[in-house]
Amino acid sequence: MTGAEQPLRVLVVDDEEALGIGVRRVLEPFRVPTGESAAEAALEVRIAKSGEEGLDILKGFPADLVLLDYKLPGMNGIEVLRHLSRDGAKPMVIMITAYASLETAVKATKMGSYDFLAKPFTPEELRYAVRKAAEHILLRRRAERLAAERRRIRFEFLSVLAHELKAPLDAVEGYLDILVEKVPGQSAQMLGRCQERITGMKKLILDLLDLTRIESGEKNRELRRVDLAGVLRRGVETQSSRAGKRQIRIEVDAPPTLDFLADEGEMDIIVNNLLSNAVKYNSPGGRVSVALRRGPGGVELRVADTGIGIAEDDQRKLFKEFVRIRNAETAGIPGSGLGLSTVRKLTMLYGGDVAVESLVGKGSAFTVRLREAAPAPVQNAQV
Amino acid sequence: MKKKTNILVVDDDKDILDQLTLVLTDAGYEVIAAEGEAQAEERLIDARPDLAIVDVMMENQDSGFMLSHKVKKLYPGTPVIILTSVSSVTGFKFPLEAGGEKPWIKADSFLNKPVRPELLRNEVKRLLEACSVRA
User: Which of residues 55-114 of B touch A (CB under 8 A)?
Assistant: First the structure.
């Protein structure tokens, strides 16, 4: 299996050109055992002579490991570290320093440095430090691969299961549809309840699939310009008959159009989940206030209701899978406990978040913030 | 007396087949029921249906699409309704979702399972009327 492992990318940032070249000469022939049978990982080394150049190289060369000099012309090592910790996929850092003071060490460690190499160092010391960091990186890679595999298997299992569960439900539902047309009065009412419960069960299966598909990265995302105001209008229309039955008013404050780079299906899921909850957990004669607007660096959607509200303790659990707040108020309301968990996972794909404010007996307000920038690849949505 | 309109109904789920038969018979149609791709092909040789309703996944994952193709080849004027229970929501990837395949499938209508009796009756009526106008 040798060669299956991706090479480890190493960036050396040091203003001493000779040091960079020396490090490359030592590391390029060096091989790190991956811990999986006889596989080894090679090292690919790039050199930068300043912090600025280093950060520039990282844009096209996502390094796994950075050997970073503390004393650099222009931006110093600590400042480079600060930049690195701001970005998402941050490399591991080994600080190189001739001034190995405790103060420097503490500062660098706080900024996320993994290890130190004191100048001057021998090739053996360099290999030892790199090997230690590399083993860490390889382990992390392996854990990520296993997690992705686990998500994929869970998704495949669930999509087969969902289909197998849906088929018998379809058959039962088909008979009920026919019977409802044939029987009178109270029996028809009972059949109606059967239909509703089956619809609820199917919704649960599909919600579960949606959720797994998002976290496994199996969902084919189509990113394009989407009119969020249109998505919102559609969502309101979908809920309007259910809202009307309980005299709930839906008020919308949104621009006529709002252009946003997104996957339309994902926007539908977010909007529909929030609106459907706001109607479901509202009081008869209540109100749903929806506001959509551009916020700093993205968009903000706020859905507020005048319903039963959520106690503070419960608010913390709200976004977890299969969590349903169970109390006298929610007792008769069907739900899978997956809606908000799905919403949260989706907002994460857009570098955003979802927040809740609520008062028991007064109502709840959910605010979703999504960033306009192209979202991170689905696989990075750690859940 | 005018011959009754006959509809070929194909589904390997006996319950669904019975339901479709019941709804369509009640609506005054003559139903030719088939429990799969092979049986449907035999029925097709016997008589030309005025309309065909076929499930997608039977013996094979694409049985419905193959049948639709055959019906159209034998009897170009017969409208075909394809029933799907595996739509995009269940996560199965089907040719149906690849837009390019649709012209090849040549079905006139796609309905999601389970089909409400009323929707089924309306769709059958609409397609039959459309083809009698064409004729």
Answer: 85-86, 89-92, 113-114
Question: Rounded to whole angstroms, how far apart are CA atoms A155 and A158?
Answer: 5
Question: pLDDT tens-digit profile of A61-92?
Answer: 989 999 999 888 888 888 888 888 776 567 89
Write down the ipTM of this complex.
0.74
Measure CB to CB from residue A177 to each of B86, B90, B114 and give the nearest one: B114
| CB pair distance less than 8 Å for B92 and A173 | no
Domains contained in chain A, number = 3
Q: What is residue A89's predicted lDDT score, i.e. its pLDDT?
A: 62
State the nearest Cα–Cα gap between A152 and chain B, in angstroms: 12
Q: Which residues of A touch B92 (CB under 8 A)?
A: 159, 163
**Chain B residue closest in CA terms to A161:** B90
Q: What is the overall mean pLDDT for chain A?
A: 85
Judge if A359 and A267 occupy the same domain.
yes
* Cβ-defined contact of A171 to B92 (cutoff 8 Å): no
SS (H, E, C) A264-303: HHHHHHHHHHHHHHHHHCCCCCCEEEEEEEEECCEEEEEE
Distances (CA, A) of A3 to A9, A42, A133, A315, A343: 15, 8, 20, 49, 40
Name the fold adopted by B6-134: Rossmann fold (3.40.50)
